[in-house]
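User: Hello! I'm new to structural biology and keep hearing that structure can be predicted from sequence alone. Could you demonstrate with S8 family serine peptidase? Please show me the input and the output so I can see what each looks like.

Assistant: Of course. The first part below is the input, the amino acid sequence of S8 family serine peptidase. The second part is the output, the predicted structure written as tokens.
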Amino acid sequence: MKKNTVSAFLLLSLGLVGLTASAQTTPEAKAKITSRYNQAEISKVRAELKDYNEKNHKRTLELAEANGWPLMLEYKKGQYSYLSGVTDLDEPIYKASDNNFGPSSSTITARVNHLRSGGSLGLDLEGQGMVVGMWEIGGPLTSHEQLVGRITSGDNGTAFNGSTQDALNSSGHATHVAGTLIGSGNGDVTAKGMAPQATLVAYNSNQDNIEALDAATEDGLLVSNHSYGIPLANAASWMPGAYSSESRQWDQVLYAAPYYQAVISAGNDREAEENDILIGNKTSKNPIIVAAVDGVANYNSPNDVDMSDFSSYGPTDDRRVKPDISMKGVAVHSAYPAGAAGSSTFGSGYAELQGTSMASPGVAGALLLWQQHYMDLHEGTPMRAATLKALMINSADEAGSFPGPDQKFGWGLINSKKAIETMNGAGETSIVEELVLNPGETYTRQIIVQGDQDLRVTVVWTDPAGTSTTTANDPTIKLVNDLDVRVKASGDIFPYLPWGFGDFLGFGAVKADNIRDNVEDVLVEQTEITPGTYTITVTHKNTLQGNQPQQFSLVVNAVTDELNVRDSQYNNVSIYPNPATDVINIQLGSGVQGTEGSVVMYDLQGRIVRQFNTLVDKVDVSSLNSGMYILNIEYDGYTESKKIMVK
């Protein structure tokens, strides 16, 4: 093949084409997100990625020509990978979609059905006004009935409208993933996606790092999906489990854009029970890596979660917990181009596929809805990606043979219902806080625990990028800022410790000092709890990078706000309906005598939105913006606080 032909192919496959911008939602919403970023740090990371990508592209052209490398490889029967670059040791990198061609819906497995209209939480979260990013090997069929009118191209050459069979081969995967993310349900309600009213920006999978940085920091992108990677059959021997240049680059991107969360499929390279086969950005610290399991119709115990027969296992070479979370990736029903081989046009069809490619968009779509709800509660301000991840871990259902995380299922099965309940309970039954740890500082917080369920304390931080390696099985720890979390009951001598991997994976994780993960998750089982006061402390080892503060997110379930603890005789107020659209009814119990008192309603910024100097029985909320409010009812020297959701 002549060099100019190789160059033309790689200009497309490496994505070295023009970039067009798309807004997250409104210009105001985009500005609210992007104004929070450190533009000097972003410029530095962008310049480093641009230099690396251009040099790598040039070197790939030279080596492909000199060595006669094929541009496409059949690494499994009927499955192809494409030349996308070279390693730091000048070895070819071939990437492919993480599908594995081969009844409980993804929506039910992730408990997203509880978030929709008619669900148990009284919400209507379908991605209204939200945008998700999707990087793929090919482009989705934008004219598909599930997707039409809701996909824009983030770079040139990604959209597919049905012209050639070759294009169909790569478009099928992208269309299926897009359908799982945002399928409308039009034409086939069983193919409805996780966020059926969201819009999607589609990108070519190469040059993904710098495109993702720009999408996050210029367009306010909050969540993206990446269902592709380097197949084990194509990887150099040192790559499985290694913290490579690609791993480092994705940590750089997410550290520079701390509100942006990339969600990445774990890969489908397992044939038996092989550990340590995650490759490339699947070993990064800050992205969320997704394992594929069978669908779960009704979770009752870890035995309800069955691992697929292909999902790649971790951990990383430095024994970090990867993958992060599990989701349905078997027999996933979604949009797919319809058309026979040799056809010149393709229409709206459907297919059931399996792979971590199918699991990853289920998680990305769910997380987009969580961001939507958080923004509804906080006047359009999103949560940090670390908060999103902390919620995901804290609310996950146990999976696997042993308590705690493992190298197969990660932290467990995603549970959107529990995550939203944790958000809604913040300040009363849970804690969701975004904090900063200064150098040499100790953060301390006391909580009251009743012991009616397990106590889980989760801290997550977006960690600076570590030093990459090209050495096989390099155990060098990649954690840069090592935060420590301890939980101690009043009167106890020894604290409860976080989960982490020990030297032997056969019996699961252990509770010990975690020196590897940018996650600290402390579980106190209900049987261990003595009701009373518990103290949470967060410290750090050594020196924080650059002697600069480290942001972290704290999520705690099963707490009691002391300010709202009342003797049962004073629990005399009922509020309904909640959520409400027009009027809130206040029912006062027999313990309340007369009408002396007050009713005051606040938004989450502490501003009074309704105020009455007597005990009224109705509050009109029809003119209020959707979101969470606090209603304080004062009587007989007592104040009862109620959280109110206005739809």
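User: So the tokens describe the shape?

Assistant: Right, they're a compact way of writing down the 3D structure. Reading them back into a model, for example: The first strand starts at residue 72 and ends at 76.
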